[in-house]
Amino acid sequence: MRVLNPIQIAQRLELLTEVGVALGNPDTGYVLDRILHVARNMTGADGGTLYLPNADRTSLRFHISINETLGLYQGGASGREIGMEAVPLYDAAGAPNVSAVAAYAAHSGRSVNIADVYQDGVFNFSGMRSFDAAYGYHSQSFLTVPMKDHHGTLVGVLQLINARPAGRGTIGAFSATDQRFIEALASQASVAITNQQLVRQLEELLEGLIDLINIGIDEKSPHTGRHCQLVPKLTMMLAEAVHQTSDGPLAGFHLSDADRKELWLASLLHDCGKITTPVHVVDKATKLETIVDRIGLIDTRFEVLLRDAEIAALRARCEAGADHAAVEAEHARERAALLDERAFLRRANIGVENMPEADQERVRRIARRRWRGPDGVESDFLDDDEVLNLTIRFGTLTAAERKTINNHIDVSVRMLESLPWPEHLRNVPEYAGGHHERMDGKGYPRGLTGEQMSVPARVMAIADIFEALTARDRPYKKGKLLSESLHILGKMACNGHVDPDLFDIFVRSKIYLTFAHENMDQRQIDSVDESTIPGYRP
Questions:
Q1: How far apart are the C-alpha atoms of 390 and 397, rounded to whole Å?
Q2: Counting Cβ atoms within 10 Å, is residue 243 exposed (0-12), middle (13-18) or buried (19+)?
Q3: What distance in Å separates the CA atoms of residue 522 and residue 507, rounded to the nearest whole number?
Q4: Are 176 and 1 contacting, i.e. CB atoms less than 8 angstroms apart?
Q5: Where do the H-state alpha helices sit in 23-165?
Q6: pLDDT tens digits for 19-30?
Q7: For residues 221 and 397, what is the distance between their CA atoms, to the nearest angstrom?
Q8: Angle at the Cα of 229 (from 221 to 254), degrees rounded to 5?
Q9: CB contact at 8 A, 76 and 63
Q10: How far apart are CA 81 and CA 73, in angstroms?
Q11: How many CB atoms lie within 10 A of CB 287?
């Protein structure tokens, strides 16, 4: 056995320390490169190969291949493709492949140390012989070490070629000491790489769970589902524009890759509480809509009144001495009044931005009409709930329904704050839960002021409002024109609703225009005169 002197031992320990530091790097590709380079330096190997199992774990693919004598460096950080075929782990019959030394090490979990492959009669080295012939090289000593994690799962296979002991120009065998050092290196690296893979898998699982929530919201309401896709997109567009800003109040705001990931996840989850909101409230297209639009029930009552009016007219005509012309005139007047009231209630059922008080009072007058239902009981034409809904002044939601809608943000906050977020994602609840707050403190759920809100939360507030204004797929409204949406958002910047500095960047960076061309109906994209936008100075 070749005995290492104190200097050599110190050098190897230094190399192990180097790779230990490298294992903390989140870039798995960089870590794998360092493992192979350190292994070669530690043993004086002329060449080395790092194999990784393919996705279905049926073969070992060449991930990195290095040969110093031939000047070859393929795969890994080199960016050069490795043209060699993968090593199958199983034969055609499905039995483990034990003829290839790398496959044998992978299956057995044992290292294989061969002093001279041309003298070995155990393994099939036909591929190596072809390589030697093609490149005029001579392979001799091989050290093949499996890399397995703490569960015994194969991570990869490390193979070193042609040991060149320090101070000797000739090729020799890898010593038992070499083997133990490389096995220690492989074990240490396997655990670190597995940890990195687990972190990535957990991140993918988290994103998958977020997608799961959004799929649930989308299935309840495709309109809200599109909102959950577009708000993150617009949020990141504006955040990047703020990141690029070099002057003004927001010049000090910068995003790292970790910050971007945190904001992206928060924007995906900003409406997660809507999974609990009743769909007939979320998608309430008309004032009387619940599970169905109750205007149909009112139409039926009008048909009953029209029928009653016609029956009364016929009976009046049958009375002795009846004035048929007067009866017909009265019937026509009553019929016209009923049809006009029916048409009015149909119009009133459609949400408007400001229902006149006179129209609300007319609804109440119609409600006091009397009609007899199928049970023969006479009652008011409209019940209290129908009157309440038909006299909604703005939109289609009652105060109670609007409270139900607004409650989604409370639910979102409770859901998000209940999760054990890691340190690098600790701001997700604050970002996602703040998009309905206002700069003047009149927002909800916590009534925060602009000074109490983070920049990302204020960014998301603008993205949420602008997407809602321009959305063309809402059942209760049409998507507004681009110029109209900017005018409304500009007013909000002036009256303390949204951050005026962020709104300035939103307009100045033309974020609105990029978003419009990518996501809005072309018929909504009209000409915008930025000089007329409230709160903006070109």
A1: 10
A2: middle
A3: 19
A4: yes
A5: 28-43, 101-108, 126-135
A6: 666 666 667 777
A7: 17
A8: 145
A9: yes
A10: 10
A11: 27
DSSP 445: S
528 CB neighbour count, 10 Å cutoff: 20
With H, G, I as helix, E, B as strand and everything else as coil, classify residue 457: helix
Write out the two tokens for 138.
Answer: 């001579």
DSSP state of 159: E
Q: Give the ranges where 250-294 is alpha helix by DSSP (H).
A: 257-268, 279-282
């998958």: which residue's tokens? 208
Confidence bin at 9 (pLDDT 50/70/90) = low
Task: Compute the distance between CA of residue 97 and CA of residue 85 in angstroms, rounded to an integer.
Answer: 15
Neighbours of 285 (CB within 10 A): 17
| pLDDT tens per residue, range 95-123 | 999 999 999 999 999 999 999 999 998 99
Q: What angle do CA 259, 263, 265 make, to 5 degrees?
A: 120
Q: Which amino acid is at 38?
A: V
Amino acid in the structure at residue 284: K
Determine what percent of the chain falls in helix, strand and coil, rounding each to the nearest 5: 55, 10, 35
Q: What is d(CA 458, CA 245) in angstroms, rounded to the nearest whole number?
A: 16
**Inter-residue contact 461 to 432 (CB < 8 Å):** no
For residues 22 and 28, what is the distance between their CA atoms, to the nearest angstrom?
Answer: 10
Percent of the chain with pLDDT over 70: 93
Count CB atoms within 10 A of the CB of residue 293. Answer: 15
Q: Using H for helix, E for strand and C for coil, what is the string for 322-359?
A: CCHHHHHHHHHHHHHHHHHHHHHHHHHCECECCCCHHH
Q: What is the pTM of this model?
A: 0.72
R_g (Cα) of the chain, nearest Å:
37
- Mark 343-375 as b/e (b = at least 16 C-beta within 10 Å): eebeebbebeeebeeeeeebbeebbebeeeeee
Contact assessment for residue 234 and residue 463, using Cβ atoms and an 8 Å cutoff: yes
Q: Report the distance separating Cα 37 and Cα 45, nearest Å.
A: 10
User: Angle at CA 85, nearest 5°, toward 40 and 106?
Assistant: 60
pLDDT, tens digit (0-9, with 9 covering 90-100), for 453-499: 999 999 999 999 999 899 876 666 677 899 999 999 999 999 999 99
Helices (H), 471-499: 482-494
C-alpha 73 chain-centroid distance? 38
